[in-house]
Amino acid sequence: MPRRLAAILAAAALALLPATASADTAYPDPLPLTGQQIVHDPTVHRLGDGRYVAYSTGGVLGARLSTDLRHWTDAGDAFATPPAWWYDYSATADPWAPDLGYRDGRYWLYYAVSSWGTNHSAIGVATSPTGLPGTWTDHGPAFTSGTSDPWNAIDPAVIRADGRLWLAFGSYWTGIRMTELDPRTGKALPGAPVHHLATRPDAPYAVEGPAIVRHGGYYYLFASYDACCAGADSTYKIRVGRSASVTGPYTDSTGTPMPDGGGDLLLAGHGRFAGPGGESVFRAHGTTWLAYHYYDKADGGTPKLGLDQLRWRAGRPVLN
Predict the structure, then answer these.
(1) Is the whole-model pTM more than 0.90?
(2) 180 has catalytic annotation
(3) Catalytic residue among 41, 99, 138, 279
(4) Active-site residue among 99, 138, 208, 279?
(5) Are 200 and 260 spatial neighbours (Cβ–Cβ below 8 Å)?
(6) pLDDT tens digit string along 191-240?
(7) Domain map of the chain by residue range?
């Protein structure tokens, strides 16, 4: 599935991050799943009817449905056809990395539209009364970036904090950024500053796919480091930092800020599960879950849905 040309070209050249934080190398395997498991960059949410939906990169934002988080069925696409404005940012109208949430009586779906190797990119927004595929009304771009910007408007993640609405985003072009949204329109506030949340200390600054969740008195930023989209050779891994403020600074367990290359290693490839990343975080029935894709070495490097429970130890997330 297409993602970023730069990520694929850089896959062989990227080195591991310096050991700025301690890491547990005994990673858990994801929850065993059945049915339609093929996804990339999943966002998962429990709907009002009790079912779970997962939207992901591929198709016109492909959808999967489940009643129990274990068995998943193909449910088509979020949209029947691409909105016309997508072609301004992608010749193939190829959407990436959706983010699904619920507020003010509606489901909100954010997603990226771009082409490989460029930051002429946009994050779009759509709403639905049910969150189900085929029910979405698109509202156009929520935030854009151009070739003169030092960031890339892809990989959206939206969070409410202190009565305000925030959009985390980013990839190559200096990593993860954040700006404020208008809660009425769901689009960027004109003139709002762009905060810098995380990057690598070395080019090409391969940090992307943010997800932010609040637990206790802290916000936790999860991000995908290194290279995706190379099948079983992908080097994706998930790192995390925390902050008392949603806009940062986020630091790891050694105190190293994520804008300075910090980040505790939460999950890396192991066994058949290569390149875990493209993550999101959701809650259901009192349990917090990490959703991500991995490349299945036992199935030709096919990207599949991974689910692990998140728990908290000494104020830091761990996988169950």
Answers:
(1) yes
(2) no
(3) 41
(4) 208
(5) no
(6) 999 999 999 988 888 899 999 999 999 999 999 999 999 999 999 999 99
(7) 5-319
